[in-house]
Amino acid sequence: MSRVVSKAEEMSTIGSFEGFQPVSLKQEGDDQTSETDQLSTEEGGPGTVSRPRQTSRSPSVTESALYPSPYHQPYISRKYFVTWPGPIETATEDLKGHIAKTSGEKIQGFWLLTEIDRWNNEKERILLVTDRTLLICKYDFIMLSCVQLQWIPLSAVYRICLGKFSFPTMSLDKRQGEGLRICWGSPEQQSLLSCWNPWSTEVPYATFTEHLMKYTSEKFLEICKSSGFRSKLVPAIQNAHRNSTGSGRGKGLMVLTEPVLIETYTGLMSFTGNCNKLGYSLARGSVGF
Question: Would the pLDDT of 186 be above 50?
């Protein structure tokens, strides 16, 4: 694996030379006219007012137009294994096969989002919506295998909150941006042990935001949009509530626009983990020499 990462770094180094500009050499006695100006004069013919040709590729203009965020630059996006050719396609095929064998439900879409847990840790996740179920998948894009799969009945989801992240006033661990929280149970029903266990899967809600690699390509722009995920999830939940025969809540689905609260105060672990992107399948460089 270290050899593959080294190759990717080599490719990114070679790609960085594209930004260099050609330098025209002047001949003796040609202090005022550059080589580019001479070519323009020859093409325009006598009597033609020539203008120096401008190179079509300017480093500052190109980078500001194509890469407004450092996460969109090729040499950074290549560190994320999900952007490599093949992993996201393999993951979707694996999940399709698993759904076909277990439930046979109709799949309505796949999305790649970032989960924000109650400790403010970022976690790369694949979300899948079927006719009756929301699946949250922890997928290893390095080994191409599903590590954890959480099944949530859509008929149990009763509230969706949309809004900017908010934190307690004294919190030292804050983040910007907007989130989407899906609730399928009451926090009061959660045990004290699972509430303070960072590895617990009994938390009755999940919070998501858009993936960092959203703008790397058109494909990722489509599957990393939280608005696209929401547009499929809400009607699927409403249909599941209408078709539910069990003793449901009877209140239907509430979609609220309000701040999404993350109750962290010091956040030392999440600060360390998020700075190093420990929740992502990331190429972290070679260990040997």
Answer: yes
